[in-house]
Request: fold
Amino acid sequence: MGADGAARRSAALYNALMNTSADHRPLELPIIDIGCFLTEGSASDRIGVARAIEAACRDTGFFYLTGHAIPGESFQSLEKASRRFFALPAKDKLAIEMARGGSAWRGYFPVGGELTSGKPDLKEGVYFGTELPADHPRVTAAWPLHGVNLWPEQIPELRPAVLGYMEAAVRAGHALLQAVGMSLGLEPQYFARTYTAEPTILFRIFHYPAVTPDEQSRTGSWGVGEHTDYGLLTLLAQDDNGGLQVRSTRGWIEAPPIAGALVCNIGDMLDRLTGGWYRSTPHRVRNTSGRDRLSFPLFFDPDFAAEIKPLPRQSRLDAARSAAETAERWDGVSVHRFSGTYGDYLLSKVAKVFPHLSRKVL
Reply:
C-alpha cells in the first residue's frame, strides 16, 4: 500500500457514501479509517491517517471514524437494552436518578433535567463512567466523578452492554489519540505518557423523544443546544435517526449517521493544548425525525488530576486572536485563559449543566 493508502481507503468510502445519508444530502465531514493504529499497520498508512486527522481538525474538528474495531453486535446490544430502559415507567428510571449517585455523578436524569447555556435540553439520559472499586484511592478520597455506576434492576442486560461497549470504545480512543499525536508532530505515545495513562472516561446514553413539527416550531426546543465538549476526544455512536449539526465556516452542517461509523470531534482541552491549532467546534442536536432518537457519546478525556499546558511546539494565541476566539465561542469564554487541572475545568462546567444537583453533591 502506498504512502497514503489508509487515506485513499477513507476517501473511497466517502465517495461511495456521498449520497447515501438518511436525508440524501452529500456528506460534508471526512471519513477516516484508523484501523492501522489498532493493528500492525504500516508507517506510511499511519502517516496518511495522521495527515487526514490534521486536515479535519483544522477544518471543522469533526470527522467520521471507521476501522475502530467496535463490534457491530456490541452496539446492537447497547441500543436494544437502552430502548428497553427508556421505555420503563418514570418511577423505575428514577430509581437510579443522579442524586443517588452522589459525587460519582452517575445515573438517570429526566427530560429537561440537563441545561445547556441555562436552557433545558429536550432529552433524558443516563451517565456512566469508569467503574472503580470502593477501596480505590480516588474513591476513598471522595474525588468527584469517580466511583461506581448505577444500574436498573429491570434491565439487567444494560450493565454488560454498557461495559462491553465502553471497553471497546476506550481501546479505539487510545488508538485515535496516537494518530492525533502523530498529526501534531509528537511521538505516538505522547498522550498516553502525559495525559491519558489514567484517562477520565465518561459515557452517556441520551434519548431524544419524538416531537411533532408543530411542537418543534412552538417550543423552539433543542435536544441539546449549541455547545463544545470539554475534554480531548468524543466518540459518538448514534442510531439512524440523525439530528446532529456542526457549526463550520460554511455555516451549520449535518452529520447524518453512517452505519458502522462513529462521529468523532475534539474538545476544549485539545484546543487548549494545541494553542488553538485544533479548534473545539460548537455543535447541537434537534430531533426532527418524528421518531425517538438515541445517541451514545463516549468522552475520552485527560486524567482528572492532569495539569493542562500547551503541548511542545504549540504557541499560545496572541491577545488579538484570543479576543476574537472568545467572541466567536458559544459561551463567550476562551479556553486559552484557563489554567489548572482537567478536573478543575470539568467541575466548573458540570456545575452549570446540573446546577441544583451540583449544590447537593459537589
